[in-house]
Structures are given as structure tokens and as C-alpha cells.
Automatic annotation (TrEMBL):
Domain of life: Bacteria
Protein name per Swiss-Prot or TrEMBL: DUF6438 domain-containing protein
Domain DUF6438 per the UniProt entry, residue ranges: 128-237
InterPro entries recorded: DUF6438
Any Pfam family the entry gives: DUF6438
Length: 245
């Protein structure tokens, strides 16, 4: 009997012992990081255009006018490199960007942002020499080539070339030094603007720009030796790369 009473009291005491509070783990939701991508500081309803032929500015302006666009102003005006601002209708920026890029009047068309003009001017002022080959009725190579003052090269093969599209590379130091030496031997401003015979048709044009001077060559006759040597050396570089044949 005493044993039973003792057991009863033991159970009673056990039931009255305060239970330890069990804290439930709560998962605190992690705060998601919001990444804000800054959009370019667009200048509303404006495009920047780089004129392909600085000597035919009025033709390009007429094209813009006939398209119903407003040529706003010349933003950079050098003898052989001109950048203009074109105003376009509300909501038509993408349409006109694509359309003007397909014309033959401009070599570059871009949306006008805070840094667009600055970048284009820096690119131009850092250019050592550039070449542009135009089409003919036959299989003439069509491409552009730009070499900057550090020896970095941008080639864009367009038609009748072995390598189409944009390719970038850097000239070896010896090749770059040779080119700069050749360019230093004769000031481009001493060359004529055009070497041509208007009586002969179906001739492609080669435009070479260096030191702010553009030279157009249609007829390879009576060309100064220094100019021929520079052109041939540039072709040798592309031939070695197997970009042209």
C-alpha cells in the first residue's frame, strides 16, 4: 500500500514539473536585392549621324529632308569628318535608326546618348589611317579598314572578300612602326583630293584618310609613289591575314 502511494505521488510530481518551452524555428525571409540597371541618358528623338562622304554633305541633307526628317545641327565639323544631329518623329527612333543605317549617306548612325558624340570624336581623333573601298559593277573587293594610333585594327569585309564581317587585331610592333614611318614621309595634305578620270565609268573608289585629309582614288594613274606604297602596304597586311585575295 505504501509502495502504491509513493508511486502515485511520484507520478503526480512528474506531471506538475514545468515543461521547457521549445522555441520553434522561424525562417526569416531573405531580402531580395534589387539590381537597378541604369539606362543610357538618351536625348529624346535625336540620332547622331557620321557622314560617309564629307564632300557631299548637301546630298545627305537633301536625303534627310526628302525623308521628312529635320537636320538639327552639325555637332563636329572637320574637313574630312563631320557628325550631325538629326531630329526624328516621336516614337520612331528604332525605325529611323535602321533605315538611315541602310543608306549610303552615313557610315555610322547611333542613338544620341550623353556619351555618343564624345566617343565618336575620341575614335576619330585617335585614328591613324582609314581606308574605304566602294563597289563596282564587277567583283571588286568592298571593305573598310581603320588603324588607330596604338596599332589596333578594325576590318569590316562587306563584299567580294575572303573574310566578311568585322575582325579586330593589333599590328605587330615592327609593322606598326613601318606604317607610321611611311605616313611621316609625306604629309597627306600635299596629295590631291581626287585622282580620277570622269570619262571612265565603272571604276570603284578607294578613300584613304590620314591626318585629317581624305584622298579619293578612282584611276590608279599618276598617283604619287608615297600614296601607292601606303596603299600596297595596307593591302599586304590584309592579304597576310587572308581577309582579301
Amino acid at each position: 500500500m505504501k509502495y502504491l502511494l509513493f508511486t502515485f505521488f511520484a507520478l503526480l510530481l512528474a506531471c506538475n514539473v514545468p515543461k521547457k518551452e521549445i522555441k520553434k524555428k522561424t525562417n526569416t525571409p531573405k531580402k531580395e536585392k534589387t539590381i537597378i540597371v541604369k539606362e543610357p541618358n538618351l536625348i529624346k528623338n535625336e540620332l547622331i549621324v557620321v557622314f560617309k562622304n564629307p564632300k557631299k554633305i548637301e546630298d545627305a541633307k537633301s536625303l534627310l529632308k526628302n525623308s521628312g526628317l529635320n537636320f538639327h545641327k552639325m555637332a563636329y565639323d572637320k574637313q574630312n569628318y563631320k557628325i550631325g544631329i538629326v531630329r526624328i518623329p516621336e516614337g520612331k527612333r528604332t525605325f529611323w535608326l535602321d533605315k538611315l543605317q541602310k543608306t549610303k549617306a552615313f557610315k555610322e548612325v547611333a542613338i544620341n546618348t550623353k556619351n555618343t558624340l564624345k566617343n565618336l570624336i575620341e575614335k576619330e581623333e585617335n585614328t591613324l589611317i582609314s581606308v574605304r573601298k566602294t563597289p563596282c559593277f564587277g567583283d571588286c573587293a568592298v571593305y573598310t579598314l581603320t588603324i588607330d594610333k596604338k596599332g589596333d585594327v578594325i576590318y569590316n569585309g562587306i563584299d567580294y572578300v575572303l573574310e566578311k564581317g568585322i575582325r579586330e587585331f593589333t599590328l605587330p610592333e615592327t609593322a606598326f612602326k613601318k606604317l607610321t614611318k611611311m605616313l611621316a614621309e609625306k604629309d597627306f595634305n600635299e596629295f590631291k583630293d581626287v585622282y580620277d578620270d570622269p570619262k571612265i565609268t565603272d571604276l570603284p573608289s578607294t578613300y584613304i584618310i590620314s591626318n585629317g585629309k581624305q584622298v579619293q582614288i578612282r584611276l590608279w594613274n599618276g598617283i604619287p609613289d608615297e600614296l601607292i606604297e601606303v596603299h600596297e602596304y595596307l593591302e599586304e597586311i590584309l592579304l597576310a591575314k587572308k581577309f582579301i585575295d
